[in-house]
Amino acid sequence: MKVLFVCLCSAFFAGFYDNVYAQLKPSVIEGKVLTDTHIPAQAATVILLTSRDSSISNSTITSKDGVFKFIGLSPGSYLLLVKVVGFKTAYSRSYTAIEDQTIHTSDIILSPDTKQLKEVSVVSSKPQIEVKPGRVILNVQNDLLAQGISAFDILKQSVGVRVDNDNNFSIIGRQSALITIDGKPTNLSGEDLLGVLKGIQSNTIDYIELITSGSAKYEASGGGIINIVLKKGKNNGLNATLTGTLGYGKYYKSNAGIIFNDRSDKFNVFGNYTYSHDKTFHDFTEYRSSEYNNVTTDYDVSYNGIQKSDNNNFGFGTDYFISPGQTVGFLINGMVRTDNFSKNNNLNILNNGSLDSTITANSDLDRHVTRLNYNINYSGKLDKKGTTLLADLNYTTYDRASAEYITNRFYDASGNTYRPDSMLQNLSPSHIRIWLSKIDFSDPLSKNSKLEGGIKFSDVTSNNDLIFGPLVNGQYQSDPKFTNHFVYTEKVNAAYVNFESKFNKFDLTTGLRAEQTIATGNSITAGQQVNSNYLNFFPQVLFSYAVDDNHDFSLSYNRGIQRPLYEEINPFLYYVDLYDYRSGNPNLKPEYTNLIELSYNYKKTFVTTLYSNIITDAYTFDYYHQIDSSGVSIKTQKNFGTIYNYGISFFAPVTFANWWNADFNLDASYQRYVAYPENGNLNQGVQDIIFITTQRFIISKAMTAELSGRYESPTFYGITRYKANYSVNAGIGTQLFNKRASLKLNVSDIFNTLHDRGSINYQNLNMVLTDKVESQIARLIFSWYFGKTRAKTTSHHTGNEDEQKRTGPVGTN
Fold first, then answer.
1. Closest to 339 in 3D by CA, of 373, 314, 312
2. How far apart are CA 239 and CA 786, in angstroms?
3. Residue 131: Cβ-neighbour burial (10 angstroms; 0-12, 13-18, 19+)
4. Which residues have CB under 8 Å from 82's CB, separation 6+?
5. What's the rounded Cα separation, in Å, for the pair 361 and 346?
6. Per-residue pLDDT tens for 491-529?
7. Sheet holding 184-185, edge to edge
8. Integer Rg of the chain from CA
9. What pTM does this model have?
């Protein structure tokens, strides 16, 4: 009976306890985990412990906002333990849970675990050069020889880029490439473009794209696109890098700058500022002959120019994260640049080999340039499948004030003055306004296909004055032969559709772009107006086939256009000396290119490309018109003829040892120039071989070194034959202060061999020239990084993720 009684009592009290407990409502504990910079700690492990014995009661993972929640808790006392890779383990105080209560804990703040960061952090670096179908990516920040120099200097030494001393850029044969900054065309050329590129320092550049075969969403540039992508900090918290450079060649060079960003869960504020101050030289010689009335007249020119520059380059922007998939941003960037040129030009005139006279032209030119770009942008993911919408609105202003005062002096063969000095004024202000808006839409039709489309509108007004004339009775007079006011307007309306698909081992990208151009050139002083209105269609196809993991092929076709730049169609007659002028051509028409590329990629590393492009109405090289009766030579551009270009290129990164690796690039082409009948009887072919190599050495854990060399064979461009060109660069760098700082030394053109040497013998023109800009320069660069460093977990990369995903930076519309 006792046993039965005990059992009945136990059952009764157990049932009573269960019934009472069932009527109690459970509790909730929730809170937030933040890093030391008050950034939400996503995917942090939060463990719920009982206070009595620290036994584990439950666990969870924080959301992207750093939030955690425990529900259905029994009454009792609890504490929290938080673990995140790269941070010290954190504990909360005890919390007592009672019936039907939600407890909001204090924010749990994590402290960095520097020891653990060293153990698990793997900082992977991209290769300096990435070669992909239709484009090459230059990762500037990983290039030791690219530190402390400008975008202009980086391009001059880069694989696949040609830069001549007239500041023309090309990446396909010799055809001019379109220069864009963050996908927006600069719409500048010559000295104006040079000033912008010299103002962009390497510490503000993320990477540079060389696009030879872009999709239809890219600008339809026949000569390819050089896209300079500026840095936009992505690290959480406040981060900044300070950089200072001291350099010396024949003259001094220096710059200092800061780039920063401060990112939180809702905002990313970023910016940069760089000030550079330098002095450089430019020398050239020209020996030209002219035949008239049985007299051979030779013009022997020796020019020396010294340029002093002060440049302020800046950018500031912010992104607001409306939601995880939507961002709106604002950006303003630009430059304020002041240049002073000191020019000394010496012209000896010889008749039948004997010195007849000498004319010297000395001048000082002061130039002030302000460029501002304002941008509002939106990017949004519209649904879960990944439909996206991108929108941009840009307004750019470019203002140049330029004043030059020239003194000409005249001497006979004995060195005596034979006429009074001539004083000349040369004023050339310029004002450019650019409105650009675009919208891009992308719709993933399926897991393996995507449809893209977009529209773009640009409206450009270029207002240029040239006021030129002599000093007469103490007042400068305008010479109507040289003075002009020219206004150019250009509207380009563009639309494109692009389709991408993957099936089995095949990838296909095909698209069509339409561009309508409406342009008017109005020479107000001369009362002349030139109108252009044309519509063009530009198809594009890129077909890839992966045979297996080691062998890939791609075939692409692009049609493109190269529109004349504003200075090229401006009919101004620019004065160099009494016998040498530069002139624009208002009747210049666009040139068109058809490009085919066939590439083979071995092990996602070694790339071989066969290419062919045909350029019609080619004009992107200098053409000289000599007037024998006066001896005057006028350099201009005209639609000269057709260029046929066939070539093969190789790119091979090679690892010789764990401390030594190298890149090798060879580009060999055959080019044929065929003139239109009205331009002469030129029909000439020539080879062009460019070889570039960069050798990299790991000296220690903190120290590396690089050595690069470039060689270009003798070649022919337009009507000019050039001799071989070659140079060698070297650099060494070390990390300091626990890898928070670096010190680098690089020397460009060690042997001072980089210069152009050419000759022209065409129709009535016979000329030999040399052109040398300062290139042998040593630079010492110090960089210091401070701020939050994100922890990086250990992972394994095969090196071909990008190729597998077939993704890349967003192109320009």
1. 312
2. 6
3. buried
4. 33, 41, 44, 45, 46, 47, 89, 90, 91, 92, 108, 110
5. 7
6. 999 999 999 998 888 999 999 999 999 999 888 887 788
7. 129-132, 135-138, 205-211, 225-230, 178-181, 184-185
8. 33
9. 0.76
